[in-house]
Amino acid sequence: MNISDLTPDFDPARVDETKTTPIVFEDKAIEYKNADIIEYDKEIRRVVEKSGMVYIRMFDLLNDSDLYDGLHPNKSGHEKMFIRVRDRIIKMIKV
Prior knowledge:
Number of domains: 1
Strand order of the largest sheet: 1-4
Helix content: 40-55%
Radius of gyration: 15 Å
Mean pLDDT: 81
Structural class: alpha+beta
Number of helices: 3
Low-confidence stretches: none
Distance between the termini: 10 Å
CATH architecture: 3-Layer(aba) Sandwich
CATH superfamily: SGNH hydrolase
Strand content: 5-15%
Order of helices and strands: EHEEHEH
Largest sheet: 2 strands, parallel
């Protein structure tokens, strides 16, 4: 087993679009939409799996209540993410 076997890659988690669309930052409107994140996630997964690394899906994990500002995970969101990553690492080590 090498270090890349133990290095999971993460996909983007979903966002609460009512709080993230649009965000005005330095006179530019930035939107975080779940449809865009899904497309971005597909490409990340393709690259990760092609490279032989482990992919851990996060998009389906968090609810609106797990995001403190609609975009970033709060304590419960981070805990859910930790558990998913921890469980995957444990599974990889047992193989």
